[in-house]
Amino acid sequence: MKSEEFIKFSDPIKLFTIWLEEARKTEINDYNACCLATSDAAGIPSARMVLMKRFDERGFIFYTNLESKKARDFERNVRVALCFHWKSLKRQVRIEGPLLEVPTIEADEYFQSRSRESQIGAWASKQSQYLPEGYESLTKQIKYYEKKFHNKLVPRPSFWSGRIVVPEKIEFWKDEKNRLHERVLFIPQSEIWLKEFLYP
Questions:
Q1: Residue 171 in contact with residue 198, Cβ under 8 Å?
Q2: Is the residue at 16 inside a domain?
Q3: Mean pLDDT (whole number) for 91-106
């Protein structure tokens, strides 16, 4: 028998809000962590964990270095997938859809909300590139930008911003006995969400 919440909810964003809040209370670390899957021009997949920083009617938002491996994938294939897995709750949420850019002012505001150390780190890290001298290279870059921005506001780097995953599919998965897991899929259709139950 399907869960009451699967039956009564017609808006996946409201259901996701409830699940995320429950995960915040039960997950030991990073309740907002999710696996981001991308693929390059040849269709070769790549996956890594990222932190979803917020979500709203537009979609699910994360931030990254725009010169990273994932960002290079974005340039070739704008379609991505997210997967949240909350082990403490035995739940998953899968999201698929294209990316939109976070508006500049919004990216600036979020960057300024980060700790100064994280701001410096964003400037210092050439994400996904090789460290020619090991971590000594990174340490040198951190010291350089600490000196450059000493007693100054750290601006957002032009190569660092956010992306919005616009959901074209949202699937909720709930663990059940005998591997008869509950799954419900939401697909936007006009101004409503089409809801379909799936076999385990």
A1: yes
A2: yes
A3: 98
Write out the two tokens for 81: 């997938």
Length of the chain: 200
Nearest-5° Cα angle at 15, 32 to 185: 100
Asked whether residue 134 is assigned to any structural domain, the reply reads: no
Structural domain boundaries, residue 24: 4-114+158-198
* Residue closest to 172 by CA, chosen among 81, 85, 59, 93: 93
Q: Which residue has the higher pLDDT, 13 or 190?
A: 13
Catalytic, out of 58, 72, 179, 183? 179
What integer is the mean pLDDT of 14-22?
96
Confidence of residue 9 (pLDDT cuts 50, 70, 90): confident
Q: How far apart are CA 89 and CA 59, in angstroms?
A: 23
Q: What is the CATH number of the domain that holds 55?
A: 2.30.110.10
Cα–Cα dist 59/177, whole Å: 32
Residue 179 is a catalytic residue:
yes
Q: What is the pLDDT of residue 3?
A: 73
Q: What is the pTM of this model?
A: 0.93
Is 130 part of a structural domain of the chain? no
Q: Is pLDDT at 131 greater than 90 in this prediction? A: no
In a domain, 136, yes or no: no
Return the pLDDT at 1.
Answer: 43
